[in-house]
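INFO  loader      accepted 1 record
INFO  loader      residues=308
INFO  predictor   begin
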Amino acid sequence: MSERARTALAALVLEAALGYPRRTPHPVDGFAAVINRLERRWNRPERGEGERQRLGVAALALVGGGAALAGLIAARWLRSRGRPGAAALTLLATTGLAQRSLHQHVEAVRKALDQGDLAAARTAVGHIVGRDTDALDAAGVAGAALESLAESFNDGVVAPAFWLAAAGLPGLAAYKAVNTADSLIGHREPRWRRFGWAAARADDVMNLAPARLAGVLLCAAGGGGWAVMGRDAGNHASPNAGWTEAAMAGALGVRLGGPAAYDGVVTERPSFGDGPPPGAADLRRGLDLYRRACSLLWLLIGAAAWRR
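INFO  predictor   done
INFO  writer      dumping tokens
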């Protein structure tokens, strides 16, 4: 555990400092390309629902298993190269983390709101959320950004670091493949319901522990929000996403969630927290909270890294 945790800690620090090089292909893009190709070939309407579900399981096994195997081969080869290989392994692991890029995207929304440029804020938040943003007011933009920050704190930071520390590069690669598959095909709409079933369930399982840890880190970093997290986490349709959204709402004393429009259709969603809708100042506080929670994650993994 300690060697993998040391790699995870080093990768977290390095990624926070450097981020991911711009205009450089990302490994997740490769996962997405394979998943989309399999979906087009196997998830055809003329196939029965049972067959589409079985093919979805096979697609996930191919992508997730292939990613884990590639991670295992790469890790073993790099470890055999001594210190240069260990450094390369750490650098490779940073590709599965998103601390810096997440902060940059949400900071762009905050800056636009601070400047009173609602149009720019809507554009910026549209890069990180799937909902319609054209009609959002300032509070709606701030709320969307905070919800994305909370959910992505788990998906892009805590969960990848958790699986990297627990299972090394194969665990990180498998998590990113499964999480990518869930985002692409793990939907409830008729087209994906059967084919994406395995991806959605696997993502739920792989996020069970990390999501709850992420919620704890947010509450600990904010010095509160425990009651709201305990009360509201189960309101979300996902068994995991509600933990970080409720923790963020409780720690900041704001209300998140509520109705949102997707492709012109308003979807009723649960609310988290008892406070007022957030504003630009709350978005600044949310980013401060995020940085403190990331620091707590570093300390936690650091403790695991030096545990004998």
